[in-house]
Design brief:
47% helix; alpha+beta; four-stranded antiparallel beta sheet; 20% strand; 3 helices
Length: 141
Amino acid sequence: MRLLFIVLALSPLLAVAETVVTAVSTAPTTQGNGVNSMTIMNVFGSLVIVLGLLFGLAWLYKKLAIKLPGSNHIKIVSSAMLGPRERILVIEVQGKQRVLGVTSNQINLLFELDQPLVDDTTTSDWRSQFQTLLQKQKSKP
């Protein structure tokens, strides 16, 4: 997943580099070497638009928290961020809910819940989550 994200992140930069090379390699005009301020502004304007789109989509993905189809045996019931790299997870394995402490270096079993938490998610399928999001957007004035 990270490799795909890196490739997608670098592809606009390659396009911008190609634009710069094309702009530099154009035939010289009477004004100089063929690279004027408008060409440079177009290149950097395009770069800003592409990076803005990239960060906007990343923010939207994080905001929606779309649950992708995964394992049927392990289910994340709840999650809470404690810091930039620390979180507490409530997972369900074989009908029992356990609380885990997760850091960047390790995962610790904190305790097992006696009374299971109620799962708030009514739609576990990402397609139905996306459809409900679209319906909410359509209903806004």
